[in-house]
Design goal:
alpha+beta; two-stranded antiparallel sheet; 3 helices
Amino acid sequence: MSLAHANKRLNNLIGESQMSEFILELKNVSRYFGSVIALKDINMQIKLGEVHCLLGDNGAGKSTLIKTLAGVHEPSEGE
């Protein structure tokens, strides 16, 4: 199934108006471990049906971001 076909089916299932709403949104999220800045001012918005990839060097904060999203870590700042 093509991505366009999948998006069309998703639009039909949930309605076009709900597709513009974010299912995940971070606003100025930061996470500190003592004096170490693991995340700083992260902003992210994801809509239903979108696919994203998280890439970065070792120590860039990928795991910390995922753990913060999952509730393992509380953000030090932001919402």
